[in-house]
Automatic annotation (TrEMBL):
<comment type="pathway">
    <text>Carbohydrate biosynthesis.</text>
</comment>
<dbReference type="InterPro" id="IPR022896">
    <property type="entry name" value="TrioseP_Isoase_bac/euk"/>
</dbReference>
<dbReference type="Pfam" id="PF00121">
    <property type="entry name" value="TIM"/>
</dbReference>
<dbReference type="InterPro" id="IPR000652">
    <property type="entry name" value="Triosephosphate_isomerase"/>
</dbReference>
<dbReference type="GO" id="GO:0006096">
    <property type="term" value="P:glycolytic process"/>
</dbReference>
<dbReference type="GO" id="GO:0046166">
    <property type="term" value="P:glyceraldehyde-3-phosphate biosynthetic process"/>
</dbReference>
<dbReference type="GO" id="GO:0006094">
    <property type="term" value="P:gluconeogenesis"/>
</dbReference>
<comment type="similarity">
    <text>Belongs to the triosephosphate isomerase family.</text>
</comment>
<dbReference type="InterPro" id="IPR035990">
    <property type="entry name" value="TIM_sf"/>
</dbReference>
<dbReference type="InterPro" id="IPR013785">
    <property type="entry name" value="Aldolase_TIM"/>
</dbReference>
<comment type="subunit">
    <text>Homodimer.</text>
</comment>
<dbReference type="InterPro" id="IPR020861">
    <property type="entry name" value="Triosephosphate_isomerase_AS"/>
</dbReference>
<keyword id="KW-0413">Isomerase</keyword>
<dbReference type="GO" id="GO:0005829">
    <property type="term" value="C:cytosol"/>
</dbReference>
<dbReference type="GO" id="GO:0004807">
    <property type="term" value="F:triose-phosphate isomerase activity"/>
</dbReference>
<protein>
    <recommendedName>
        <fullName>Triosephosphate isomerase</fullName>
    </recommendedName>
</protein>
<dbReference type="GO" id="GO:0019563">
    <property type="term" value="P:glycerol catabolic process"/>
</dbReference>
Length: 254
């Protein structure tokens, strides 16, 4: 089965060239578990992708934060999957709640984007997650299942997808999901995959958690059986990202 621990750093719309170089230097100098134990992927803004790719240690990888839903062309302001391939960018993030909420990306659109990126050979970190209102009304599982279904409807092979559970109320708020809350939703997502995509997909797909993960709370979250890693926002810009990468060893020891 072997779900390798996955730690993604989503830098969002942050950083100057100088700041980016500083973060990369910190990452390059860090002593972390080997690539056999943890897969590390950082996602700078588009304009810094070539710079980060050229400077970053070879055991860490880069992701774009978005790409266009179909082949490139007359789509002002967009970046195509073909361009990412051209730059040898192996990963892309799709379905982030900030894009769903602020740019009105529907679940169907996200499904199409995931499918197109995969068709071009790009691996996808696909995000799902409920709002506070949805959680309080008891519809968390229904919401994340519907978002996952919109992806599953367009995709038959899950080998190159990492599913990120990111409750909207935990993103950038400092309000982290408790380990039990994260485990519960991850377990439900795995059950959903089992029922709808098969036992093998459920057993092998990594389901990572995102939302106010930091150096202090990562170990307890990582210890949950269905938490296969993290997608980190704010803390991925700071040296504590190294501690989060190291939390992969929690899995190694059990
Ligand atoms: O949105 C996130 C990662 O994609 C999480 O952001 P924070 O870690 O800043 O809460």
């Amino acid at each position: 089965m072997g779900r390798k621990f996955f730690v993604g750093g989503n830098w969002k719309c942050n950083g100057t060239g100088e700041e980016v170089k500083k973060i990369v230097t910190t990452l390059n100098e860090a002593e972390v578990p080997s690539e056999d134990v943890v897969e590390v992927v950082v996602s700078p803004p588009f304009v810094f992708l070539p710079l980060v790719k050229s400077l970053l240690r070879s055991d860490f990888h880069v992701a774009a934060q978005n790409c266009w839903v179909r082949k490139g062309g007359a789509f002002t302001g967009e970046i195509s999957a073909e361009m990412l391939v051209n730059l040898s960018i192996p990963w892309v993030i799709h379905g982030h709640s900030e894009r769903r909420a602020l740019l009105s990306e529907s679940s169907e659109f996200v499904g199409d984007k995931v499918a197109y990126a995969l068709s071009q050979g790009i691996k996808v970190i696909a995000c799902v997650g409920e709002t506070l209102e949805q959680r309080e009304s008891g519809s968390t599982v229904a919401v994340v299942a519907a978002q996952t279904k919109a992806i599953a409807d367009k995709v038959s092979n899950w080998d190159n997808i990492v599913l990120a559970y990111e409750p909207v109320w935990a993103i950038g708020t400092g309000k982290v999901a408790s380990p039990a809350q994260a485990q519960e939703v991850h377990c439900e997502l795995r059950k959903w995959l089992h029922k709808n995509a098969g036992a093998e997909v459920a057993a092998s797909t990594r389901i990572i958690y995102g939302g106010s993960v930091n150096g202090a709370n990562c170990k307890e979250l990582a210890a949950q059986p269905d938490v296969d890693g993290f997608l980190v926002g704010g803390a991925s810009l700071k040296p504590e990202f190294i501690d989060i990468i190291k939390s992969a060893t929690v899995k190694k020891n059990d």
